[in-house]
Amino acid sequence: MRNLGDDYRLGTVVVAGASGHQGIYDAFVALHVICAVVGFGSVALSGVYGAAARRPEHQSPAEETTRYFQSRGRPELLILAVPLFGAAALGFRPEGSEFGQVWVIGGLVVWMVAAGLLFAIVRPAESRIRRSGDRQEAARPATRLMWAAAACDVLFVIALAIMVTQPP
C-alpha cells in the first residue's frame, strides 16, 4: 500500500513517491536552466550583432557581423524547451508543487511574452538582415532586433527572479 505522505499533486494528477526522484528532478532543472541560458544568451548575442549591423560604418556590414547573420540562429530556439523542462521538473519536485501557484503562472506568462518577441520580432529581423545587401537596408531591422533582444534579456532576468524567489 502506498504511503500518502510520499504523494505530491501535479495539477490534477498525483505523482506517487516523488521524493525518491531527486536525481530526475535535478536533471530536469539542469536542462531547464541550460536551455534558458543558451536560448536567451543567443538572443542577447543576436541583439549585440544587431546593434553592430546598424552602425553606419563604411556602408557594408563588418565581416564578423555578416558572418554571424549567415547562420540561422538555431540555439535561440532552445527557449521553446524551457517551459517543457520546467514543467517536468515541477512534476518531480521533492517538495511538491502545483501548476496553479503564482510563481509558476508568472514564469509561464513571462516566457510567453519572450517567445512572442522571439518569433514576432527577433527571428524576422534576423532574416531581413540576412537578406539585406548593405547597412542602410539592414539598419531598421537591426534596430528592431537590438531592442527586442534587450526586452528578452529583461524578461529573462524577471523570469529568473520569479524562479529563484518563488513568491506565494
Helices, strands, pairings?
Layout: E1 8-10, E2 13-15, H1 22-53, H2 63-70, H3 82-91, H4 102-131, H5 135-165
Helix pairs in contact: 1-2, 1-3, 1-4, 1-5, 4-5
Describe this entry's structure for a reader:
The protein is mostly helical. The protein has one domain. Helix content is 66%, strand content 4%. It contains five helices and two strands, in the order ββααααα. Strands 1-2 form a two-stranded antiparallel ribbon. Strand 1 and strand 2 form a beta hairpin. Helix 1 packs parallel to helix 4. The two termini are 33 Å apart.
What is the strand tally?
2
Q: What class do helices, strands and sheet pairing give?
A: mainly alpha
User: Helix fraction?
Assistant: 55-70%
| Integer tally of domains | 1
Overall residue-averaged pLDDT value? 83
Q: How much is the radius of gyration in Å?
A: 20 Å
Number of helices: 5
Q: What share of residues are in beta strands?
A: under 5%
Low-confidence region ranges: 1-18
Short descriptors:
mainly alpha, two-stranded antiparallel ribbon, disordered N terminus, elongated, 168 residues
Give a brief description:
This protein has 168 residues and is mainly alpha-helical.
